[in-house]
Automatic annotation (TrEMBL):
This is Putative PTS system lactose-specific component IIBC. One of its GO terms (molecular function) is protein-N(PI)-phosphohistidine-sugar phosphotransferase activity. It comes from Staphylococcus schleiferi. Keywords: Kinase, Membrane, Phosphoprotein, Phosphotransferase system, Sugar transport, Transferase, Transmembrane, Transmembrane helix, Transport. The chain crosses the membrane at residues 39-67. It is an enzyme of class 2 (transferase). GO terms for biological process: carbohydrate derivative transport; phosphoenolpyruvate-dependent sugar phosphotransferase system. One of its GO terms (cellular component) is plasma membrane. Residues 91-103 have a biased composition (Basic and acidic residues). The keyword Kinase applies. Residues 117-222 form the PTS EIIB type-3 domain. It holds the Pfam family PTS_IIB.
Amino acid sequence: MIPFIITPIINSWILKFFVEQLGMNGFMHLLPWPTPAPIGIYMASNFAMLSLVLIAVLLIVDFIIWYPFVRAYDKIKLDEERSTVTAESSNDLKDTSDTKTEQENESSYDQSTHNFSANVLVVCAGGGTSGILANALNKTTKEKGVQLEATARAYGQDMDLIRDMDVVILAPQMDSMKDEMKKITDQYDAQLMTTTGREYIALTRDGDAALTKIANLIRQKN
């Protein structure tokens, strides 16, 4: 607010000095309001040469007045940005550490947990992301020799398959339907696994972790 108030006052004093002391023409023409200020001064003074000097002086003085305040404001915003970046970096490090710990814990999948068989249905909105996880599970179970078959479906498609399933994995975009899905899985004595976006992506990349979760759910059922 300070430069916004004092700059026009000082500019008026300088203009008065140029007109009264240096003999520059005053404003002799009324110009349209959109006329840019530097050009407007030159034209309104009837193209007086001293007005060009006045324009240069005003620009220099105004810059000197505004510069410290702009620098101070820039420093404040820079400090805020640094604080935000530091906080985000800390959160990212914490999230990365937590995710790594979760993956390490889930990946501690020993051979004894392979001794189970299960039918798994992965459900998402359109069948695309569920297919990714189902394919990852089938690939891992084939490598591990686990008797598990994963099937992918879109929500509402072939829902009668749930009666033959041991575990139903609900993709994160279908979280709003988990209560309805829970009623269906309870009806057919199947276990429902819900996931967050991060968990779901991790499961598609880490087959052992996915098998661990499924094995734990089946143990709970038994």
